[in-house]
Every structure is written in C-alpha cells, then in structure tokens.
Queue: 4 jobs
Job 1
Amino acid sequence: MFSSIFAKKTSYTSETLDIIRLIRSENVGVRTFYSLVKMFGSSAKALEQIQEMSLNGGRQKPIKLCSKSAVEQELEKLSSVGADVLTYTDDHYPQLLTHIADAPPVISYLGNSRIFNQKFCAIVGARNSSLNGQNFASTIAKNLSQNAVNVVSGLARGIDTAAHKASLPNTVAVIAGGIDHIYPPENAKLFKEIAETGAIIAELPIGSVPLGQHFPQRNRIISGMAMVTLVVEASLKSGSLITARMALEQGREVCAVPGFPMDPRCAGTNKLIKEGANLIECFDDVMDLLCQSDVKQKVGLGEASGYDNFTTMPLDENIVNNSSRLMVLEVLSSTSVSIDNIKQSTHLPLPAIYIILLELELAGKILRSPAGGIIRIF
C-alpha cells in the first residue's frame, strides 16, 4: 500500500503478542483489558483465566480467545501495507495518551512513530465548514507547525482536512476504521501524504470498516494526544463537541472560535464558549494556552489512569461464589447502576464486586456506560 522509510519490526516480544491477543479476544473491551492486567499481573496470565471467568459469569460456552496465529496474520497484513503496531508498553506509544482512562492498548500506524511524543494541539470542526472556518483552521495549523507544535485531527472533510493540509508534515490523523481504510475516499491523496511525512493512527484491526459508533471512539484518541483541543466550527450535535467533552473529561484545555449567531455551524462553538471554553481569536491565543498546558504537564497529570490506577482486586474464592454473583446480577437492570449502589445493595466488598463484574462482562451479561455505570443485558 505504502512504502515507508521507517523500518518495520521483523519480530515481536511475547508480551506484545499477548497484549494483542487479549484485547482482540471476545468480550474484552479497553477497560476490561486493563482491569484484567491489573488483576492478574500480565496479559499472558489473564489469557489463562478469562475463559473460566466467562463461565463463572454465566456463559454457556467459554469465550473465544484470539489465537497467536491470528495475531501473526494481523501483523503480516500490517507489514504488507507498510504499517506497524505499538502497545501501551512501548516507548514510542503516545505517553500523553496513557493518562486517559481508556487509552487503546494497541494502535496500528503508518509513518513516523517518533512524532507521537512531541507536542500536539488537536484541531477539529465541522465537515460542512465555511470557507472562513477552513481558512482560520489552516492559518492556526500552519503557524503551529512552524512553531514546533504538531496538529492531530480526524481526517474528516472540512476543518480536519484544512488543518492537516496546512500542518504537513507535522500532522497526525486518527482514523475510525482499520489502517487500510481511507475515509472519506476523496482524502486518499492527503492520507498518503500524511502517511509518508507524518503519521496515521488506527485503533481497530486492519481490515475493519469504519462504522458510526467508531467515530466517538476515535475522538478520545484525538483529544487524548493533545493538551489543547481547538474547535473551529461545530453544530450543536457535532462530533467535534464529543471530542471537546472528552478533552474536558481527560483534564485537557478546550478552546473554541466564536461564530455568527445565525450560522448553525457555529452554535456548538458558541455554546462551548458560554460554558467556559477559552475564546480563540488568533494564533497567539492558542500559543498562550499551549504554554499554560506545558506548565500543567510539568506539574503532572497524575498517574496513567488507563493502567496504574485500577483498584487491586485480590481473588477471594470465599466471597466470590454463585450466591454473591446472583446478588450482583439481581440489582442490575437495563438502566445504568453505579458501583457504589451495587455495594450498598449487596454489602459485598469492592474487590469481590469488581471480580464479579469482570466475569459478567466476559460472559456478555453486562455493559459499562460511558459514565462508568453498569447496564444489564437481557
């Protein structure tokens, strides 16, 4: 697909293979992945236990583990298009991204991974953007690139495209499908330019077609790679507002460009400013925020919440039994229930509740809401 000047790995550690196997296994989402690694100490040990845990959670047949051969095939496919993978344990993995609660355990990429740990500003906005909006995004992106700040965006039409083009080669595009799916198709030339000079990132396995639900998932990576997210134009139901909300939840700065009140493409950005987002009128405003963010980053974002901050969950077979599992299941419903409410209702210790919820999740009996609550699947 692409020839790359950056050497690809010819071999991978067993830890890398195990990490990919675990996250690709049935019913293992990102948060479940990190909980399992924290619980068992490694991906390899988690792989030895999760089938039994799924049976304990009420599944009739054990969940399907991703095989080593399937991982090897995935890596071969990546290599065939000039791509490679990074896990959250790799040095070139974006370190700022590890500070979000749901950092992808594995990303595939095209291009130069050395860019990932440089300074980034996220620029996002409307797909049906105005010419003025595109010009403003281009101006900001070009100036950022000339001042040693990279731009990360989502390769979408409109503002994203303008930001990427103006910041080449100092730009990273995060896409919603596999690394081999170019969306939108008209950005094929831009995709190639970014892959050859900057970098393309994908969380989903190669061959995955981008679906609607994948775009919000993609957005958390865009905001997670940057200390500042700039929204240029956005409607009230825009995906860019989702990115802004995620940035706030991640403890990052959000800024927005004000727009004409009668233009629906500006309703979202104006709303962000009303709610406290930093108002941006020129490049200097963005640089001021980035300088403030540098200080914040030096002070420290805290430990990486994606991995280190999970509660230790010692396995206590005397507490985690069929009776306690039934107690937890009975307090769950089709509406979200918080873990605190589960604890109050069952009087079980939190470590036991965490283990039972993991079992139920692996069994496909529950879902976690974006806010962290638990939803039962009937």
Note: The chain has a mean pLDDT of 91.
Job 2
Amino acid sequence: MRICRSYSGVPAEARGAVVALGNFDGVHLGHRLVVGRAVELAEGLGAPLAVLSFEPHPVQVLRPESAPNRLTPFRAKARRLRECGVAWFYCLHFTRAFSERSPDWFMAEVLAKGLGVRHVVVGHDYRFGKGRAGGVETLSDGGARLGFAVTAVDAIGNAGEVYSSTRVRQYLQRGEPRLAAAILGHLWEVEGRVRSGDARGRGLGYPTANLRLDDTVAPAFGIYAVWAGIVGDNDTDTDTDWHPAVASCGVRPTFAGADPVLEVHLFDFDGDLYGRYLRVAFVTWIRAEERFEDAGALVRQMAEDCREARFMLAGARPPRDVGRTAFNQ
C-alpha cells in the first residue's frame, strides 16, 4: 500500500481510482462494508482502489475539548486498511484553514482535479466541507457535474444497534474487549514503542514492557489476557513475533501511580524490549485493578493472573498478520 500526504501530484497510475471517504477510526465492520463496496467497484471497473482520510481527526482540530481518544492511531489504521485490500491511502493533513473550505471546493479541487477520482464511496451519513454542509446528495450532484459517480452504503449493525466507533469505545471502557472485537472484526490493539519504566515488575519476578496510551482509548483499568506482538527490526508488520501475555492497564494504585500505563508481561520470553515496537491485542478481561497492602500480596495475585491468562489463551491463535505497508512515505 502506498501512503500519500497530498492530493496534488498524484502518480498517473493512481488516477481514476475508486475512493472510499471517511475517518475509519477502528476500521470496524461498518467501515469495512464501505471499503468492501469500493473494492467491488474497483475490481469491476479495473480501477485502482484508494481511501481518503484526514490526520488529525477533524474533531481534534475543531473541538479538541470534546474529541474522543482514538481506537486506531495512524499506523494501526493503515495496517487495517491494507488488510481490506486498499492500494492507495491518501491521508491529508487537517487544519482549521482546510475546515473553511466549501464542499464545492473539496469536490472540485481535491476529488476531481487533484485525485481524478472515477467513483466515490461513502457511508450514508458522510458529511464534509465547511460546517459539515456537504452530504451524500451534495456529492452526487457534484459528481454528476465533475465526472465521477457516487455510491452511499447503508449502515449495518447487530443487537438492534449500528456498528460504530462509539460502541467500540464503550465496550472497551466497560472491560469487554470481546464485544468490541465483534464490532471491529478483529482484536483491538494498543501499540507503540516500549518505554523504560521503574523496573518494579522485574524486581517482583514479572518483567513488563511499558507502553504509553497517549491519545489512544484507555480500556477499563484492570488485568487482561493479551497477545503481545514484537514488530521486526525492519519496522514493518510482516514479521511480527506474537507471544501469549498478560497485561495490566491502570495507574498502579499499590505504588501510588498517577498516569495510566499499559504494562505487558510476555510468557516464557527473555529479551530486551526497550525501544522495540510492540503490538498488544486484547483478548479478554480477567479482573479489575486493585490496591494491595504489600508487594507479597501483589506477587501472589500476579501469579494467579498469569495462570488464568495462560488458560484463556491456551489453544488460541494470535492475530493474523497482514502485508507490508510503506510507513516512510
């Protein structure tokens, strides 16, 4: 998959593409339906397949005080889109100045002139342009005028509710990663560079790799059975080495911690993970975070947590890897 940061100077082989528009945070099953429809159209037309999205999320720029934390940072989103078969990922920088552009400008300058799109696919409630003034009807009218077709995809869901990123966040914040995975179509992951910590886990006999959550959604504080994937030295996702593991997400109340951190203990692993890129896929909840009276009580509980996590992961398969993504574009 090729990643492009601009809508100008598009390679000739990328023009005339079928383009799915959206933010696609989480790349859940509803998003996959939109991209899947674009895949079908691209195959039928013999056209390139592309996705157009924005970084950062427009809400983070326009209403930062109410912006939800993300399910998938950029790298994770790119991986999931590649899994869907996307060949070109246009990730445009979103600014306040860009937010002032009209729907007509976006259709003419970005879609028609810049990308030379052949067909656009969106969700039924897609909005764009200044004040979110543009919608599916706007796109259809503009496409008829500018030379591209438009397909709107209806919402899908389960249990009487539409699949949405909001529902996924709610399940994660309730400690229900399995329900979140049912909407995502894959295990939810936290990923990033392993940071140096205070080495308490190693001193207690359970060394951990520490990840900061930053602007990623914080799941319910507690202990989880997880898969931990160590990304290879070439820094792509083709050679991720998966290990069964147990993870603690929270503020470490036994040691009067303050900032949330994700600590991951890989089973039967002896190596240095500092600075390595780690993917942590949440499988199931074990228990809530607790404060223990002393280190001895904590160690006994950690041993029990490890036994339970091993049992939950026994016979299970790690997440399925996808192909190479060029992150240096």
Note: Residues 70 and 216 are 5 Å apart (CA to CA).
Job 3
Amino acid sequence: MKKYSAEGVLLFITVIWGATFVIIKTALQDISPMLFVTIRFLLASLILFPFLKKIIKETDRTALAGGLILGLFYFLGFSTQTAGLQYTSATKSAFITGSFVIFIPFCQVIIEKKIPGKGSIIGILLVITGLLFLSSKGESLLQVFYELGSNFNFGDFLTLLCAVFYAAYIVYLDSISKKHAYLPLVFIQITLTGILGAGALFIFSAAGIENIKFNFNGHILFTFLYTSILATVIASTLQTKFQKYTTPSKAGIIISFEPIFSSLFAFIILHETISFFGFIGCILIFTGLLASELLKTPNEQ
C-alpha cells in the first residue's frame, strides 16, 4: 500500500507543478529569472525555520553532504528551467523538460548501478512518444519535428540541461532519502538553492548576463506564495518523504504528467486549446504509466 500511496502523492505534486508553468511564465514579465529563483527558495527556507531545532537534531555529516548534493541538482534544474522559459516557446519547453525521463535510466546506471526493468523502459518510450504528440499544436507531427529540430536556441539548451539535472536529482533522491530523515534533506536543498541563486544573481548582474528586474504587483505576490509554499516546501517535502517507496523510473513517468496538467491549466487560465495530436499524447503518457506497472519485473519495487 505504501507504494501506491507514494505514487498518488507524486501525482498530486505533479498537479501542483503543472500550474507553475503558466504562473512563472507570466511572472517573468515582471521579474528577472535568477532573482525569482533566489526569492522563491529563500522564502521557502524561512517557512521551514520553525522546524530548525528538529532539523539540526536529525542532521549528521552524511545527511548534510547528501542534502548539499540534492541542493546542487535542485538549483541547477530550477535555474536552467526558469532562465530557459525566457527564450523558448511553451511547446518546446514542455517537450524538452519532459524528456528528463530519457535520462533517468542512464542516471540509475551511473548513480545506483542499477538497470531499469523492461516495464520502466517501455513506459518511458511511450511517455516520450506521448510528450512528442502533446507538443503538437498543429495537425502534423512533421511540424513538431521541424519546430523542435530547427532554430534550437539558448533557451532550448538551458531547458535540456534542466532535464538532465532533474533526472539526476530524482535518482539521487531515491538513494539518499532511504538513509536519512526527510526534513533535513528538504531544508538543506531548499536553502542551498536560495543561496546559490543569490550568488548567481550577483555574478550574472555584475557580468551583464542578467539585468535585474522587479516590478512588484499582485501576480508576483501570488507567484511567490504559490511557488514557495505549495510548489517548493510542500511538494519537496512530500517528494523527499514518499519517492523512496517507488522506483526512480516510475517516479519519472508519473512526474512526466506535468505537461498534461500544464496544458489543462493553460486552457483554464490562458484559454489555450489542445490539438488532436495532444489528446493522443495524453493517452500515450497514461498508457506508459500503465505499462510500467503491468510489465514490471520481480526486481522492481
């Protein structure tokens, strides 16, 4: 039962993250990317300060080291994704970000010395195909291949890096969360992300890479509250606590539902429509989840 409860929790987290795509994309009109990352995660860290005594009590040297590594992957993933949103389209960003499931098997071999089972591999292939269909805004997949393959820009490159870093994060979280209490890992990774964001903001601003922009308004306030409380503190705590009860490949497949929820929120908030190929993509992603469960091998959890 723990396994299915954990996977339900991961799906709930994915719904929360699905809304952030639309919310952050709009907020970046009023705030520069690295400043947003810095404030979001430092605010999330402050929210956890009432639990500091418990966190310190449960933190040893290995938990600190593990949390710092998680925080590094966390920072690299969120910062590259947020910066990439400024330069690439929603269609390409959704597909490239979702491609992190491709990298999970490779990260498992490198980090955990494990080879994913056939159910996970088949599920990942179905999910990637589904993401490709979901990315289609037109009537032909040739248009999608053309859009993804042509005009590959800096934002696409940053988003691809995000996919690699997040795959590594998911796999390493699977390994480290089984050995330590979840609250110290959450606090350390969130705090380090905020600190690294502040450092990167200073360097990028001094080097002229990022011009600091901050136009405070109601939407910015809502964005900080939503992303700091729901999408960071609550989502990271739940993921760190429950992901260990399933496999990294299955977790990746569940989280790859994010583009589906992003499309749903884009339809509700921005009145964007989904194409016929998009509906097929949703079905393929769901089929990938079923395949990973029904075709799992005995060595998989």
Note: The longest helix spans residues 2-27.
Job 4
Amino acid sequence: MKRNLLIVLVIIIMCGCLSATLSVNTPLPSDISIISPDPSLPEEVRALSGKWVGQWNAGKQWGWDCAIYVEKVDKDSAQVVHSWGDYTTRAGSCHCAADWRRIQEATVTYSEGKATLEFLTPPYRPLKGPNPSHVLTGSREPGQHRYIFSFTLEKNKPDTMDGHFLSAKNSPLWIQLKKID
C-alpha cells in the first residue's frame, strides 16, 4: 500500500514538473509587456491574458512550436504576439521559417463561459523589404491571403486554450495551448 502511494506521488510530482517547464523554441520581440486586465471583465476574458505555449500537430513528426502572448485584453479586442518555430513537412522541407507577429486588433468574444480570441494574418513567410513590419492589425492585409486563427478558453479549463488554424486553402490544423504565465 505504501509503495503504491509512493509511486502515485512520484508520478504526480513528475507531471507537475513537466508541465511547469513546458516551453517552446520560437523567436520573440524584446518588448513583450503583459498588462493586467481590468477586474470588471468576465473571468474567462481576464484569463486570456499571459503566455500560452503548445505545438501545432502535436505528436506528429512535422509539428511546430507556437507561443501566444496576450499582452492586453479588453471586452472585445486584444493585442497579441503570435510566435512560431520552423515548420518542416513530411518531405523534410521547411514550409515556413520561425518568426513572430504582433496583432494589434485581435477580436475577443465571450458567451456562456467561453472566451474566444481570433485574428487573421498573411501566410507564414519570412518578412521581406528594407524595414519589414512585424505589426499587423489582425484583419485582412492588402494583397495577402489570410490565415484565420481562433483560440477558445473555457471557464472549466482556465489554463488550457484550444485553437484551430484555417489556411487560405481551407486546411485546418489544431492545437492545445497551456498557460505558462
């Protein structure tokens, strides 16, 4: 009996340590700043604030790291830093390079114990030009195909955000992000 209890305790401690060290390999801007949300916002909307990490296509050999920093959130919008690692296809070629974007006007919706964060971006491509901007509005950028990102946080799972990504080719991908900070 004591041995079984000891084994269970070791497993619980190991799982806690693994979840506490969850990290991703993604580039980030040097000026990330998380602003505490207004206490009058619904609990689920406030819970969006902070650092979230996960991996698209988790468990598959061609998945890639992702981090979402919800820097500022209010009733119907948020400022988000979206960061990702290299994405390598089954054939081994890099489909996109690691990079990040700051989304100034992500949409926040709330109903029935769920808060959803959604934004649009151009394709995962390295930024080009003499002074490429990492800052996007979150709406369709002129001349670009759009990628739709949507992440939902439920009241009964405050440290987990389930997300999906829909490309211009209607190719859905899924992710589960865990809150780090």
Note: The chain has one domain: 26-179.
